[in-house]
């Protein structure tokens, strides 16, 4: 289970929470422009936009969970078990495996409009990376630095591309149903409620925050979709990068999962392994981990992008505490 957002406050910030019960040894990976992306059924990309994101590297290949390119386009894959369906190879279509989808898009596109054109004839084909790394059932949030975003879902009815007016994605159900469910919460507000229940009766407001009384707070994907949409839509804009990055991580941490609360198997719990975000204008990549909630950053060094070797940065997982005495 996961949550991904695009947050615009001056610049735009794109990223996600990764919620799983096990870590795969992910790290920050920068793929420079001349790294050769080999695709199973498509021509290789020998020169492409540089990509920064969270990935695991297997057999020299970066398997991205999420990332953004140097042009300010971001993309994240989130669990979509159930509705997700991948297809056999179709000779009439552009056949891309799901594990290749992020580099296929981020390597070639500058913005959401270009993505829509690129994937018009796309077929997400059912080919595993390896026996050890089978495909995950995913759908994707794609957003650019203008703040525009789309959701891409592959189901039995085919490939669907949806405009995303709220810039939030979680997991099941399919995106149109998630969006429609927001109608049930239109009255949720940061302000104290007006008494429309019994207008002629004086009702005391016994607490602050009663306008959010009906806001869901569960770990399930629909609850997180509603809560994150509400939180993001009412988030302030900071006066500088530091404030905006701080606000951004408060948005993701509003729906993070703590250990011990979401049991997925006997004595096995899903939790937020990391939260990350990239400034789509500067390319600076930020992250926190469950063990270390200090914000860490990797800057995009333009002098290192014209090469063919992956750049990797292990996650800082030891808690950093500022002692004042």
From TrEMBL:
Secretion signal, residue range per the UniProt entry: none
Pathway: Lipid metabolism; bile acid biosynthesis
Domain spans labelled Choloylglycine hydrolase/NAAA C-terminal: 2-313
Key words of the record: Hydrolase, Lipid metabolism
EC number(s) recorded for this UniProt protein: 3.5.1.24
Keyword Nucleotide-binding carried by entry: no
InterPro entries: CBAH, CBAH/NAAA_C, Ntn_hydrolases_N, Peptidase_C59
Molecular function GO terms recorded: hydrolase activity
Catalyzed reactions per annotation: cholate + taurine = taurocholate + H2O; taurodeoxycholate + H2O = deoxycholate + taurine
CDD domains referenced in this protein's UniProt entry, alphabetically: Ntn_PVA
Enzyme class: hydrolase
Family listed: Belongs to the peptidase C59 family.
Record protein name field: choloylglycine hydrolase
Species of the source: Limosilactobacillus fastidiosus
């Amino acid at each position: 289970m996961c949550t991904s957002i695009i947050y615009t406050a001056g610049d735009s910030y794109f990223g996600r929470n990764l919620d799983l019960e096990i870590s795969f040894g992910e790290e920050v990976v920068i793929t420079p422009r001349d790294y050769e992306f080999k695709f199973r059924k498509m021509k290789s990309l020998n020169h492409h936009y540089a990509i920064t994101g969270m990935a695991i590297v297997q057999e020299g290949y970066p398997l991205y969970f999420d990332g953004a390119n140097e042009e300010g386009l971001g993309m994240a894959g989130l669990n979509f078990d159930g509705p997700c369906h991948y297809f056999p190879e179709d000779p009439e279509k552009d056949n891309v495996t799901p594990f290749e989808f992020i580099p296929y898009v981020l390597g070639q596109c500058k913005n959401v409009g270009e993505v829509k054109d690129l994937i018009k004839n796309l077929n997400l084909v059912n080919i595993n990376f390896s026996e050890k790394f089978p495909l995950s059932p995913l759908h994707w949030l794609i957003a650019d630095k203008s703040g525009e975003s789309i959701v891409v879902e592959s189901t039995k009815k085919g490939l669907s591309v949806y405009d995303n007016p709220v810039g939030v994605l979680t997991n099941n159900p399919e995106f149109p149903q998630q969006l429609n469910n927001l109608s049930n919460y239109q009255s949720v507000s940061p302000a104290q409620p007006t008494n429309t229940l019994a207008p002629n009766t004086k009702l005391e407001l016994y607490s602050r925050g009663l306008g959010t009384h009906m806001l869901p707070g569960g770990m399930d994907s629909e609850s997180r979709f509603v809560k994150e949409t509400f939180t993001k839509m009412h988030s302030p804009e900071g006066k500088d990068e530091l404030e905006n990055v701080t606000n951004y991580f408060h948005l993701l941490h509003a729906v993070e999962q703590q250990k011990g609360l979401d049991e997925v198997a006997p004595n096995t719990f899903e939790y937020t392994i990391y939260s990350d975000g990239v400034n789509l204008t500067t390319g600076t990549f930020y992250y926190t981990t469950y063990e270390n909630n200090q914000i860490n950053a990797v800057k995009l060094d333009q002098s290192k992008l014209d090469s063919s070797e992956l750049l990797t940065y292990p996650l800082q997982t030891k808690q950093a505490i500022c002692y004042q005495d």
